[in-house]
Amino acid sequence: MDSSTQILLIAAAVMSLWAFLAFGWDKRQARRGGSRISEKTLLLLTALAGAPGALVGMKVFRHKTIKSSFRWKFFLCLLPNLIWIWLGLRPYL
Fold first, then answer.
1. Which helix (H) or strand (E) holds 61?
2. Please, what is the Cα angle at 28 between 11 and 79, to 5 degrees?
């Protein structure tokens, strides 16, 4: 694996962790009535290589799983992640 692929994997892991934590924090704030993270920010984190963490965060925290308007936007944000993965793994397939 070359260094550029390693950098992309590390960046994806960081973004994924960040997205996971953001979903958890937003759920906590929702329960407490505190200041929330905007849906736009959660979707941006998802689109910017954070989809794995966002998906796990949605499931673990049971957050934003029922709201259909968010769900379809979320799945649209998965597309860039799938393209990144495909482009990144293509040389190794």
1. helix 51-61
2. 40
The helix (run of H) or strand (run of E) holding residue 43 is helix 39-45
Establish how many alpha carbons lie within 13 A of residue 35's alpha carbon, considering only the half-sphere containing its beta carbon.
Answer: 0
Residue appearing with tokens 């958890």? 24
Question: What is the arithmetic mean of pLDDT over 41-54?
Answer: 94
Question: What is the reported pLDDT for 21?
Answer: 98
Average pLDDT (31-49) is: 95
CB 45, CB 80: distance < 8 Å: no
pLDDT of residue 47: 93
Burial group, residue 38, by CB count within 10 angstroms (0-12, 13-18, 19+):
exposed
